[in-house]
């Protein structure tokens, strides 16, 4: 597998738990680095062939500040040839009208810069009204809901990582 990084804010508890679970699911021998979006430079970001980017959805469907502040840097990058997998955290019961919108916004920006999104997952088993992360019957990444489906996180992460291992080759 080529160089892979998981990029998220080290100051986020739930996103951090999922990021660490993803790294663990790749196995001890996998060369997967954890990068803090609040400190990463564009040069560091571009060093990786495979990127796994994690974000929550804040407020009424917004990116958290730590990603929002990196967007100008992203918009100056050429991401052609990069494979990017996304994981997003949301609350489908509390915010059903913008479930996982942060992941959708981030995906739109990354694709506009030439990145190829991988790791799409089924929307089956979720209950929400709308999502910017949805394409047909799939999410553009892994959807995580600690509030109403936390018991499914481990299995969802493990299944998703097995898929990524194939897509990142």
Summary tags:
alpha/beta, globular, 169 residues, three-stranded antiparallel β-sheet, Rossmann fold
Explained architecture:
The protein is α/β, with parallel strands linked by helices and 169 residues long. It has a single domain (4-167), classed as 3-Layer(aba) Sandwich (Rossmann fold), CATH 3.40.50. The protein contains seven helices and nine strands, in the order E-H-E-H-E-H-H-E-H-E-E-E-E-E-H-H. The strands form two sheets. Strands 1, 2, 3, 4, 5 and 9 form a six-stranded parallel beta sheet that branches. It has a three-stranded antiparallel beta sheet with strand order 6-8-7, with no helix packed on it. Helix 1 links the parallel strand 1 and strand 2 (32-36). Helix 1 packs across helix 7 (153-167). The longest helix is centred in the C-terminal third of the chain and has 15 residues, at 153-167. It is globular. The mean pLDDT is 96.
Q: Topology, pairings included?
A:
Layout: E1 4-8, H1 13-26, E2 32-36, H2 42-46, E3 50-56, H3 65-68, H4 71-74, E4 83-89, H5 101-112, E5 116-118, E6 121-122, E7 134-135, E8 138-139, E9 142-144, H6 146-149, H7 153-167
Parallel strand pairs: 1-2, 1-3, 3-4, 4-5, 4-9
Antiparallel strand pairs: 6-8, 7-8
Helix pairs in contact: 1-7
């Amino acid at each position: 597998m080529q160089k892979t990084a998981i990029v998220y804010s080290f100051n986020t508890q739930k996103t951090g738990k999922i990021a660490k679970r993803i790294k663990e699911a790749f196995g001890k021998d996998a060369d997967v680095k954890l990068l803090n979006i609040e400190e990463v430079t564009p040069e560091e970001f571009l060093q990786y062939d495979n990127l796994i980017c994690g974000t929550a959805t804040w407020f009424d469907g917004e990116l958290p500040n730590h990603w929002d502040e990196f967007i100008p840097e992203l918009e100056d990058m050429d991401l052609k040839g990069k494979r990017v997998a996304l994981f997003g955290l949301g609350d489908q019961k509390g915010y059903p009208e913008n479930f996982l919108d942060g992941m959708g916004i981030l995906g739109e920006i990354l694709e506009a810069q030439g990145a190829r999104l991988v790791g799409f997952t089924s929307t089956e088993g979720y209950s929400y009204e709308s999502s910017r992360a949805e394409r047909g019957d799939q999410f553009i990444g892994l959807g995580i809901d600690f509030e109403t489906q936390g018991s499914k996180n481990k299995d969802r992460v493990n299944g998703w990582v097995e898929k990524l291992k194939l897509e990142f080759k």
